[in-house]
From TrEMBL:
Lineage: Bacteria, Bacillati, Actinomycetota, Actinomycetes, Micromonosporales
Aminoglycoside phosphotransferase domain span: 25-213
Protein name per its UniProtKB record: Aminoglycoside phosphotransferase domain-containing protein
Source domain of life: Bacteria
Matches recorded under InterPro entries: Aminoglycoside_PTrfase (IPR002575), Kinase-like_dom_sf (IPR011009)
Length: 252
């Protein structure tokens, strides 16, 4: 972790490519994969995220966010460098979204509607470079953060049995992590932040929400919940959370 943090601090020199009136303000929650700070760019509050993603990966994400913004979704919009690039040296600078997390069942229903609009807008979208969908992993062993070879054989069998129930479904972009901390709500909008886990997959994986706010039928919800638990176990393996999620996936 120390070495990663050291690299990130050096990498923040890239912020100068957004102009002379730029500054980091304070760190924000961003997990271990990225260093995320509030920043000021030309007098406006923004968010900077520095990490180790490839240029192809960042191009996929920033182009997606621009498209969703044009289509009317509330998302962080990439702010270009002074020469027009959407990222530089692993750094992306995005607009800051106001709002708080969902608190009521009505709030979560609004989140579900927003996720369904995301799914509608991105049918047929190309896969994020290097990623696999849940059904790809019925045959593939690896994909970005996932290495099934590192998991117990019996656990892999359970995960694949859960994902097999999604086979043949239409795919689209899924946000991948619509937890309360990644939602910014106001009376007028539902904003989704932190698109680090976004990829192409079956849309129901996004719709396992508190209180079944998406209104999925019992059978559909069970399939989605099992597949989602399997996905999170595989992505996070083998920390305590991943072990807990794998325990939720039924035996074959």
């Amino acid at each position: 972790m120390f070495e990663a943090r050291k690299v990130w601090r050096m990498g923040w020199e890239a912020l100068g490519q957004w102009g002379e009136d730029v500054a980091r303000i304070e760190p924000l929650a961003g997990g271990v994969a990225n260093d995320v700070w509030s920043v000021r760019v030309n007098g406006h509050l923004a968010v900077g995220r520095l990490g180790g993603r490839s240029d192809a990966d960042l191009a996929w994400e920033t182009e997606l966010l621009q498209y969703l913004d044009r289509e009317g979704l509330t998302v962080p919009v990439p702010i270009p460098t002074t020469d027009g690039r959407l990222f530089a040296g692993g750094l992306v600078v995005m607009t800051y979204l106001e709002g708080g997390p969902p608190e009521t069942q009505a709030d979560w229903r609004r989140v579900a509607d927003t996720l369904r609009e995301l799914h509608r807008l991105t049918r047929g979208w190309p896969q994020r470079p290097g990623w696999r969908s849940s059904t790809d992993l019925l045959h593939a062993e690896t994909g970005t953060k996932i290495d099934l070879g590192a998991m117990p054989v019996e656990g892999v069998a359970r995960c694949r049995a859960a994902w097999a129930r999604l086979a043949g479904r239409q795919t689209c972009v899924v946000h991948g992590d619509p937890n309360p901390g990644n939602v910014r709500m106001t009376a007028g909008h539902v904003g989704l932040i932190d698109w680090d886990e976004a990829h192409v997959d079956v849309p129901d994986l996004d719709l396992v929400l508190p209180g079944n706010a998406a209104g999925l039928d019992d059978g559909v919800y069970d399939i989605a919940a099992q597949a989602s638990a399997a996905w999170e176990a595989a992505v996070c393996w083998d920390d305590e959370y991943a072990v807990k999620r794998l325990a939720e996936v039924r035996a074959v």
